[in-house]
Amino acid sequence: MTQNNNIDNTRRNFLKLTGLGGAALCLGIYFPANGSPVLVRPSELSDSEIELCPWIIINPSGKVTIVNHRAEMGQGSFQSVPQIVAEELEVDMKDINVIFAIGNEKKYGGQITGGSSTIRSAYKKLLKLSASAREMLISAAATKWNAPITDCYAESGQVIHKPSGKKLHYGKLAEAASKLEAPKEPKLKKISEYKLIRKPLKRIDTPLKTNGELIFGLDKRIPGMLVASVERDPRYLGKVKSFDAAGALKIPGVKKVFKVKMGYYEYMREGVAVVADSTWAALEGRKQLKVEWDSSGFKHWSTPEIFETQNNLLKTEEGMILKTQGNPTEVLSKTDKKLDVVYQTPYQSHVAMEPVNCIAHHKGDSIEIWGPIQAPGWVQDYVSKQFKIDKEKVIVNMTFLGGGFGRKAMNDYPYEAVAVSKELGGPVQVVWTREDDATLGPFRPGISYRCEGTISNGKMDALKFRMAGQNNGHWSGAPKDKPNGSTSEGFLKPYYESVKNVSFSDVLFETTIPTSFWRSVYASTNGFAYESFIDEMAHEAGKDPLEFRREHLKEERCQKVIDKMEEVSGWKKRGKNEGYGVAITECFNSTVGQVVKVSKNPDGGVKIDKVWAVMDCGWYVNPDIIEAQIEGSIIMGLGAATTHQITFKNNIVEQHNFYDYPMPRINEIPSIEVHIIENEEDAGGVGEPALPPFAPALTNAIFDLTGKRIRTLPFSLGTV
């Protein structure tokens, strides 16, 4: 894998880089509304029939280029996508070049990197695409040798003639292969035949990350680029009343100061941009700004009021029903033996290691954007509408992302960069500080849950869940008379088979605080409430919490997850002075079960001794990447449960940087043991599903050890 730091990935340079000319095999794949996938060459594609996987390009030298249509933000798509293609194409990983696609949904289909969707949405297409290319290359070689196709096979980027041992590398066959009709049903390998897939291959982007060659958004430079830092209204819906730029303009290097707006869905956030010839000058100039804000006309919320309001709503409101079966309300009304408790989870910031940034060049009749962007198609749609320029003339180039977690799927920061560029009449990079990133949002919403349930004959007879928290969709105009579609996210579907009476409802709650996606979205908060409550139900029934789940989760795949959890954790051998907690959640088509072991800390509180994680994600690519993503999810879950939260005073965030929004430190990270369930089911997500079960498994373990039930996050391990 190579990366040319001096190449701008525009359409022209994209064509140069990938060698689209002469003897090149360049294949795409589209999926008609009905019928099998069809392999095509780009010249054969029409605007109405394209949903493409990444293209495979083979140039005359034999080099294979994979155009990765999704973002790489640490989750591993830059490794996993080529690993899939290399398997069926029969090439060595060292012979593959990987580049990012520009934003173009007509060519590549959906390009949003979110919902743990990159592999699960594309792996079947990728396998078929690369297997078809392999068969075309073999066919071209057989024709050249005047030999039966059955006498030829592909290996290490070559086609080999078995009887004679003759070889031709793919580059010498690309031109002939490109003229052949692509097979409709290429033969795919069995999982037992894989040489690369399901193997822990080292990531091809790691060397570039360690030697400093990799280009993240903050590293990107284009000719004539200036740098801007923006002082934004700390209250999202506030306005700029006045500003004094005199002090900022005295800073050497500062070129211009002006008011700017940043689009966030249907709203605009106002600020004042300081533009300079360097990042340092822009930041220093911003410090000298004097801005007066108009924060009238909307409610100013503080954290205690938010959760008090949510609690009051849960006492009086039934909410909008999302899912229901049986009649849990009636069952619960007829018994005095029921549990009725409230759980709370806080607002959280994304704090990706690379703060938000973006380069834009508004050229009058077109716009070009470069940066760490999770959703190039969304950016194209939004920017083209806001600036009234055809979508095809909004070019979005993805760089590597230093973490995203959903924040870099937003349209606000690319919009702002375009607005600044338009005012300047030239290219500009807008750089956010860590404080901007932490305080301005959007945030994971803080949510309160009322959970009611009753036990009959040792099993759950009724479950009733109500959620009061902001609906992210309301910022983009989602109807407010319909429930949040994510209210039940994280709750295992097999529970519906064993519990006759279940309901989920959304109690409408809104603030003037911007919210949006956060890693695993609502499953990160739902999972804590629902799996903690299942544990309380197990205790009420007098049952072992893992066995209680086994009795209610009869689906075969869940049973295998539970078997593995029990086996690896030594669940049945746990000691009296050890606390063990369990939780199992599902999101993005993957199920993850975790067991957490805690013990008393001699210095007070409790310490986490070990975490066992078992994931059933179906078909998978690289176990090393899965292990890393599970570990990262657990650590992120640990921070959200025990070390940080976002709080508000009069709609202004009280946290600013890592000193008051502390991340878990390496000496606080417990031992984590990861296990992957082997099967051939359809692929599920990997990057997010391991986060939701951690917090409930931890608090359930603390209850097992201390008898103290924790229902509000975050909490301190040192004071439990």
Automatic annotation (TrEMBL):
Keywords: Membrane, Transmembrane, Transmembrane helix
Pfam family, one: MoCoBD_1
SMART domains cross-referenced by the UniProt entry: Ald_Xan_dh_C (SM01008)
Gene3D superfamilies documented for this protein: Aldehyde oxidase/xanthine dehydrogenase, a/b hammerhead, Aldehyde oxidase/xanthine dehydrogenase, molybdopterin binding domain
Every Aldehyde oxidase/xanthine dehydrogenase a/b hammerhead domain range: 211-297
GO MF annotation list: oxidoreductase activity
Transmembrane parts of this sequence: 14-33
PROSITE patterns reported for this sequence: TAT
NCBIfam families in the cross-refs: TAT_signal_seq (TIGR01409)
Protein name, entry field: Xanthine dehydrogenase
